[in-house]
Every structure is written in structure tokens, then in C-alpha cells.
Amino acid sequence: MSIVTVFAGTILGIIIALMRMSRNKLIRIISDVYVEVIRGLPALVQLYFFWLLFPKMLPFEISDTTSIVVAFIVNASAYISEIIRAGIEAVDIGQWEAARSLGLSEANVFLKVIFPQTIKNILPALCNEFISTIKGTSLASVFFINELTTGYKTVASATFLALESLCIAGAIYLMLNVALSKLVKILERKLKESD
Amino acid sequence: MTDEVIRTENLIKNFGKLEVLKGISTSIHKGEVVSIIGPSGGGKSTFLRCLNLLEKPTAGKVYFNDTDISDKSINIQQYRQKIGMVFQNFNVFPHLTVLDNITLSPILERKISKAEAEKEAMELLKSVGLEDKAYEYPKKLSGGQKQRLSIVRALAMHPEVMLFDEPTSALDPEMVKEVLQIIAQLAKSGMTTVIVTHEMAFAREVSDRIIFISDGVIKEEGSPNVIFTSPKDPSTIRFLSKIL
Ligand SMILES: Nc1ncnc2c1ncn2[C@@H]1O[C@H](COP(=O)(O)OP(=O)(O)OP(=O)(O)O)[C@@H](O)[C@H]1O
Ligand SMILES: [Mg+2]
Q1: Taking chain B (244 residues) in consecutive chunks of 10 residues, what is each chunk's mean pLDDT?
Q2: How many CA atoms lie within 13 Å of A21's alpha carbon, on the beta-carbon side?
Q3: What is the CATH number of domain A2-194?
Q4: ipTM above 0.85, yes or no
Q5: pLDDT reported for residue A123
Q6: How far is B41 from chain A (nearest CA, A)?
Q7: CB distance B15 to ligand 1 below 6 Å
Q8: Minimal C-alpha gap between B226 and chain A (Å)
Q9: In chain A, which stretches have pLDDT less than 70?
């Protein structure tokens, strides 16, 4: 389960990272929102969402375990995409230009020149993310699913209230975190100007 | 004319509100060696980078062998294979060995075999005195060696024209000569060459024509003799008097 999550999360993370650097504005906005929302919402809220609402949105049945795995994959993909994006941006622009000037296709520019250098840059950060993902999923696989079920049952009498307050708490967290990450971005831009 | 390798028509490039190129029209002929000189910020690099579409012109056209390569619908990749470029900062690929730096694009895009690409690469390396570095990583090379590598990496694609953007400006003085020598050799062998440089003596020696660019326009162009001994435009005169 951990392996599946790390693997799928990385693949999805790469796709999201590429989407965020797309020339298409709509794709960029969608992927930006995806990352911001996932990074901004507490993991618990995300787990509840995927465990309670997500199965209802699907036309077919999925098990509790599957929905939790999906939650972890989605969560990991957002963080991994951020790491990858930062890693790609750290590669000197001259590398892109040299690769393009040789007449390499855009795919080869990325796969043969940029990505290998990115991987080297981000390996430490990526390993950290893998470890925490693995920790999280293994925790979930042995006990979290039961925990969620029992925890939910205790507030089952006030179902709607619980969902509502969850949403409100989630929204507050989201706003705080989005504001924070915007602030960090402004700071990053200021720092970049100097070099 | 049929022997034009590159032609620009009223090339204009803006960066936001900044007008960097204000309409440049010129041609580079087959076998010609053209040096571009001019004050810093005048638009020399931008002009050169428009020729292989690393910068997209705001307006105007770039022709390569009579094909409009600034056309949006064109696949620029195949034309870039025929337009070699050498950068001030070398931009060698640090994650690849010297040999793999050279063979990467020939194998992937010219679709030649690895053995053939390596054989060719070794010959190129020999021609610039780097054959004993073939299996090293660029980290181990000096600046001059990196630039020699980046030149043969471009040549491995069999380009029809070579663009150089201040190829020796990032080098320690003692390494400038070895790189200039290779460029001069290449130019004399008949390679069509456009070089942006601050090395005036070099430009005078190797060029068939000098283009003086300032404030985003060609202020003056002509043979090295004319430009260096009897420039007419006041800005050319001012620039040369400061630099010579
Ligand atoms: N990517 C860019 N974005 C914004 N402005 C740019 C960009 N590239 C160049 N410029 C600006 O365009 C102008 C011309 O730059 P360019 O590099 O073409 O000059 P240059 O003649 O090559 O100068 P130098 O001799 O210093 O290399 C400069 O004012 C520069 O700041
Ligand atoms: Mg320049």
C-alpha cells in the first residue's frame, strides 16, 4: 500500500508539476488550485472527504481502504509536485536554451537534459516526502481506517453539524495557509531579485 | 538572392514596454563571417537569439534558407538542428560525460547509431584537443575546455550556420586565445558564422562584414576595414574611440 502510494503519488506529482509550468493558463490555474487546496487543508479533513464524500460521488463501489489510499496519493502528489517544480526551476535556464539550440525535441529537452539534473537536486527533499508518506500510509493501513469509523460513529448523531464544522474549520485552515504560501512566494521573488 | 542562409525583415523585439530591437533587416550569406559589435544593452544578444527563435520576435520575420522560421505554425526544432549556437556561459550538460554531451542530439535527432555518433564525436574532440577528456564530466574541465566542448557539441549536428554570443567573455584571459583560434579555424573553413564579440582585433581579422548595433538598430555595417578605419555614424565613432 505504501509502495503504491509513493509510486502513484510521484507519477501524479510529475504530471501536476508539468501542468503548473504549462503555457496554457487554464491548465496552470487548475493545477495551482489543486496544489494550494491540498496543501492548505489539514490531512484529516482530506481523509474525511475521501472516505465520506468521494465514494458517494463515484458511480461504483469502492472499499474504505481504496478511498484512503486515493486520499494519500492525492495528498502526496501535491507535495511532490511542489518539490519537483522547485527542482526544475533551480536548473539554469541556459540548460534549456542549449538543449533547444541543438534541435532536441521538447520531450527530449526535458527528459534527457532537464529532468536528470532536477532529480539530482531534489533527491533529499523527495526522500523526506517518501518517508513521511510511507509512515502515514502504514499508520492508516493498520489502524486509521478503524479509527476513522469509530470516531465518526461517536459524532454520528450530529452528522450534519459535524460535516459543517469540518467544512468551516477546513476553510479557515485553507485561507490561512494560502495566505501564508502567497507571502512566501513574494518573499522568494524578492530574494531572487538579488542574484 | 539564393545564397542567403539567414535573412531578417524588420525584426522587432519588445520585453514588456522595453523596445530592444526596433526593426533589424539584414542577410547572412553562405560562407560569410559576420561580427556583431556594439555597446552593452544595445540588443546584440537579443538579435542573435531571435535567429534561432530562442527569443520570439514581437514582429518581423526570420528566414532560414528562404523558409519563414518565425512563423508560429512551423516546427522550429528541425531548423535549430541546422543552426548551431555557442553561449557565453558554455551551458555544457553537467550530468553527461564530454562524449555524451556531443552524441546526445545526433543520436536522438539525427538518428545515427551510437557507434557512429561516438566515432564522429571523437574526431571532433581530437580537432579541439580534448580527446583525452572524452570520458570525464564537464566539472573537471577548465572554462576554455568547456567552451571548446560546446563548440564541437554544436558542430556534431552538422549545422549550416554557427551563432556565437560572446564566446570568450566568461573566460580567463589565458584561455581566450585557444577558443578564438578554434572559431577562426572554423570560419576560415567556410562555415557561415555570426559572432557577437567584444574582441575587436579578432573581429577585424576574421570577419567579412561588421555589423554595429546600438539602441536596437543597425547603425552601420560594412567591411572591417571601413568600420574600423573610417566609420561614418557618430555612435560607431563614439563606441570605437572608447574601446580601441
Ligand atoms: N529576457 C529579458 N527580459 C527583459 N529584458 C531583457 C531580456 N533580455 C534582454 N533584456 C534587455 O534587453 C536589452 C538588450 O539586451 P541584450 O542582451 O540584447 O544586449 P547586448 O547588446 O547583448 O548587451 P551585452 O553586450 O551586455 O551582452 C537590455 O536592456 C536588457 O536588459
Ligand atoms: Mg549580450
Answers
A1: 88 97 97 97 97 97 96 95 97 97 97 97 97 96 97 98 97 95 96 97 96 97 95 95 84
A2: 14
A3: 1.10.3720.10
A4: yes
A5: 81
A6: 19
A7: yes
A8: 33
A9: 1, 137-166, 169-170, 173, 176-177, 180-181, 184, 188, 191-195
Dihedral Cα B186, B192, B198, B202, nearest 10 deg: 50
Claim: this prediction has a pTM higher than 0.80: yes
Indicate yes or no: CB of A102 within 8 angstroms of CB of B77. Answer: no
Domain segments of chain A as ranges: 2-194
Quote the CA–CA distance of A48 and A52 in Å, as a whole number: 6
Grid coordinates 577585424 are at which residue? B204
Cell (9 digits) for B187: 570560419
Indicate whether residue B214 lines ligand 1 (CB < 6 A). no
Write phi, then psi, for B64 (nearest 5 degrees): -120, 115
Listed in order, strand segments (DSSP E) in B47-125 are 59-64, 67-68, 83-86
A98 interaction partners in chain B (CB closer than 8 Å): 85, 87, 91-93, 150
Neighbour-count burial of B98, counting CB atoms closer than 10 A to its CB (0-12 exposed, 13-18 middle, 19+ buried): buried
Q: Which of A181, A171, A179 is nearest to A49 (CA)?
A: A171
